[in-house]
Specification:
Length: 417
């Protein structure tokens, strides 16, 4: 029997913050919770592992914003901070044949061969950035911001090289990306950031049209289905937004969260260093334990839908609660809150999605994070946080789950020991 919770809906704090205590409280009421989004928009959050897996793969759940009732009825203002997630044209907001067409075009350019071929470049860029991290620490009384000097420029550099984005645009695109994923942003700033992001990426596309190269933007411009179908200009820009935002923000958070977890659980780091677990295990456990994306917008039931006994009305905007599912005791046992790189089975999480919209960039994210962590701790085995965990400033978003800064003391450089 479907039920509608009698509890008042949970108002999600647009300024973000650590989601785990909030998730634990909400899960006490069930795997699905009613929530209030910015500007008093009513929605739902699915944060139980099995319920989220069911919901993500359900045939009566859509991504196209035409199924978003409040948006279709004109009740969502242009400057709503989550509007881009709903309205950007691309794979993340397409369904059925349209989604398959777009994913086919993109996946033909985003092949396993291209990802495998990136390993030497990822390794080289990692080593260059570690040099920079060491230099920053030397000039900063032994302390450097690992997020700014390492966790950010690695995935941003790789994704921009992959898509043929010139270096001059990278810092600007990161700033705009931060605004796009922020959930406490003023309406005027949200509108301006989205327009500027589209403008900058249009310049990137125009540059690759003039001078095609061995990059994904050039490949996407040239890509055709057998019947001659191609990405429209709007779909191409939307695809670039997806990969540039998701392709660096999520991996940035993943690397940052993994370093925080290992610094707080030195015994787990020792297990990896002693060979009892691998760096890939660290990546998978971080994805589960501290998902780089907390609540991802949006999916919409195309009919009234019951999930884990709770009714989700047709047209409701639903958040995928990856951070909640990752620590669900019903799926991960009574020690779900414990960071354990030897957890069996490893990698049982939904943090990279499930079903037709499973993250196309997952192999690249795993490659970057694994290489980054292995090389970081091989060179700086005594690396530790320079401040207490509770002093770290959190992201101003309930979408991305991490901190804005990560001051560390790298300690002795093993290359010089």
């Amino acid at each position: 029997m479907s039920t509608v919770s009698s509890d008042p809906p949970h108002r999600i704090d647009p300024s973000g913050g650590c989601p785990h205590a909030r998730n634990a409280r909400l899960r006490e009421g069930g795997a699905v919770a009613a929530v209030v989004l910015p500007d008093d928009v009513r929605g739902m959050l699915v944060l139980g592992h099995e319920a989220l897996k069911e919901f993500l793969g359900h045939s009566d759940v859509a991504k196209d914003s035409r199924h978003f009732a409040a948006l279709a009825e004109g009740r969502i203002p242009e400057g709503w901070p989550l509007r881009t997630f709903a309205t950007v044209r691309g794979m993340t907001t397409a369904d059925g044949e349209d989604h398959r067409r777009l994913r086919s075009l993109v996946s033909r350019a985003f092949t396993a061969r291209r990802v495998d071929a990136l390993r030497p470049r990822v390794e080289a860029l990692t080593d260059e950035l570690l040099d920079g991290l060491a230099a920053a620490a030397r000039s900063g009384d032994g302390v450097a911001d690992l997020r700014a000097h390492f966790a950010l420029p690695l995935p941003m550099g790789v994704i921009c090289e992959l898509f043929g984005v010139d270096a001059e645009f990278r810092e600007l695109l990161h700033r705009l990306s931060n605004d796009v994923v922020a959930t406490n942003i003023e309406p005027e700033r949200a509108v301006a950031a989205n327009r500027e992001m589209v403008s900058v990426l249009a310049q990137v596309v125009a540059s690759r049209e003039r001078e095609p190269g061995d990059d994904l933007t050039s490949a996407l411009l040239a890509a055709h289905e057998a019947d001659g179908d191609r990405l429209s200009r709007e779909e191409l820009i939307g695809t670039l937004i997806l990969f540039l935002v998701a392709g660096h923000e999520t991996t940035l958070n993943l690397i940052t969260n993994a370093v925080r977890a290992l610094c707080a659980h030195r015994e787990q780091l020792d297990l990896v260093c002693d060979g009892a677990a691998g760096w890939a295990d660290v990546v998978e456990e971080t994805l589960r334990w501290d998902s780089p994306v907390s609540y991802f917008p949006f999916r919409y039931p195309t009919r009234d839908l019951t999930v884990d006994g709770t009714l989700i009305p047709k047209g409701t905007p639903v958040l995928a609660g990856y951070s909640g599912a990752g620590r669900d005791p019903a799926a991960h046992g009574p020690d779900a809150d414990r960071f354990d790189v030897t957890r069996v089975p490893p990698g049982r999480h939904l943090s990279l999605g499930h079903g037709a919209h499973y993250c196309l960039g997952a192999p690249l994210a795993r490659l970057e994070a694994t290489v980054a962590l292995e090389r970081l701790f091989a060179r700086f085995p005594a690396l530790d946080l320079a401040v207490r965990e509770e002093e770290l400033p959190v992201n101003a978003s309930f979408v991305g789950n991490s901190v804005r800064e990560l001051p560390v003391r790298p300690g002795p450089d093993a290359r010089h020991g």
